[in-house]
Amino acid sequence: MLSVLCATSLVTLANEHKLNPATGLVDATGHNMVAAHCTACHSAKLISQNQMSRERWLETIRWMQSTQKLWPLGEAEPVILDYLTTWYGPKIQSRRAPIPAHLMPQGSD
Q: Does 55 map to a domain?
């Protein structure tokens, strides 16, 4: 039953918010800024496969600026952050909760 509800939610999301055919990203306010600034250097799939908080998206932008030659975003930055947080923010629901750290395998030394 849960998988049916999740599938229904995805269908509803897809119907309410169309994906841009050129990028595959949600076609909503801020899409053009994200497409212009972000996909100039990498695939839109790199964006859509992530779900980060606004703070984490900002940290990622700052990392790209300091190490990957991303230019200053100026007034576009809040628009880009709003878009990324709205459409590619942390997942509210997933298939299962993350495995607690104490149950994860230890790295080999």
A: yes
Helix axes 54-67, 76-88, angle to 10 degrees: 130
Q: Domain range holding 86?
A: 51-92
Residue count of the chain, please give it.
Answer: 109
How many domains, the chain? 1
- Residue 103: CB atoms within 10 Å: 7
Predicted model pTM: 0.71
- What number of other Cβ atoms are within 10 A of residue 52's Cβ? 16
Q: Is residue 80 part of a domain?
A: yes
* pLDDT cut 70: percent of the chain above it: 80
Instruction: Look at residue 57 and tell me if it is in a domain.
Output: yes
CA dihedral 38, 39, 45, 50 (to 10 degrees): 0
